Amino acid sequence: MEGKSNLSFILNKPHEVVYAEREVPKLQSPHDVLVAVNYTGICGSDVHYWQHGAIGHFVVREPMVLGHESAGTVVEVGSAVSDLKPGDRVALEPGVPCRRCRQCLGGKYNLCPDMVFAATPPYHGTLTGFWASPSDFCYKLPDHISLQEGALVEPLAVAVHIVRQGRVSPGQSVVVMGAGPVGLLCAAVARAFGASKVVSVDIVRSKLDFAASFAATHTYLSQRVSAEENARNIRTTAGLGEVGADVVIDASGAEPSIQASLHVVRTGGTYVQGGMGKSDITFPIMAMCIKEVTVRGSFRYASGDYALAVDLISTGKVDVKKLISEVVSFDHAEEAFKKVQGGEAIKVLIAGPNEKL
Ligand SMILES: [Zn+2]
Ligand SMILES: [Zn+2]
């Protein structure tokens, strides 16, 4: 890759970003491929690092390349790679686990303690010219899926994992707290899994209007009332009677939503924590206990989630194009962060640095 530019978008410290040339990565193994990055979506975690320089115990101590939701074009393949060739368009799965530990061998590689994940300190992200990856963490896009849609496979895989954690099955009722990108995608995946009622809940009317046009069968504007009262209102709005919802997903991380969730879930139902907000909250443990609610966490994605995300787009079951509010060029990358932070956009994509339409 002599002479190729590997211009990267780097966070030095909160609100201080720079562009710098970095060495084009070399293939580490004959199973690796090199991908020219074409599009990258910006999500809440990227914005959080840009604003605060840390998420929980992940602290940016050295300059770090941002970005982890990318699609690109294969430019070089290692000698052992048979399933990809130069020119193939791929969605990048941005975290590579050790493949050897108990979690990896158990199929839950998202829980690998030695995960190397893009734009999670100390590892660099994908807002860079070229990205080297094991070929099995690159998912070939069918011809009718665009590279822009390819950049949305990552958040869709997050939603697939959350909905799978909820064991959503045909005919069920699902409440999704939060109508940001992940909440919207959870609603769409729940529909694709056969849920007959999907209720999107948020505090912003315009987000709910979008949710109704995207995947939700019902919407509810959360009020400044008790969690029990919001739960009652949700049941009424969606015709869930006194029983409540089979599955409740929190994609907001907000304490009032989490509290309402435990009150709206049915006896024997399932609650999944997808959103990340404050690390400690007041949790309605009594409701959980007496209703025997199954409570599950959800973190990133694991075996089969990325492949299913590509399939859901490919078969038209989830139309991720609708989530793309705007595409900005690589040299205006910081604008994408400002737009996502300001809440004026659902998904903003950064085109480039290797632009290909
Ligand atoms: Zn993300
Ligand atoms: Zn592992």
UniProtKB/TrEMBL annotation:
Residues in Enoyl reductase (ER) domain copies: 13-350
Enzyme class: oxidoreductase
Keyword Metal-binding applies: yes
Species, as recorded: Phialemonium thermophilum
Function as written in the Swiss-Prot or TrEMBL entry: Xylitol dehydrogenase which catalyzes the conversion of xylitol to D-xylulose. Xylose is a major component of hemicelluloses such as xylan. Most fungi utilize D-xylose via three enzymatic reactions, xylose reductase (XR), xylitol dehydrogenase (XDH), and xylulokinase, to form xylulose 5-phosphate, which enters pentose phosphate pathway.
This protein's pathway: Carbohydrate degradation; L-arabinose degradation via L-arabinitol; D-xylulose 5-phosphate from L-arabinose (fungal route): step 4/5
Cofactor: Zn(2+)
Keyword check for Lipoprotein: no
UniProt keyword annotations, A-Z: Metal-binding, NAD, Oxidoreductase, Zinc
Designated name of the protein: D-xylulose reductase
Pfam families associated with the record: ADH_N (PF08240), ADH_zinc_N (PF00107)
Superkingdom per UniProt: Eukaryota
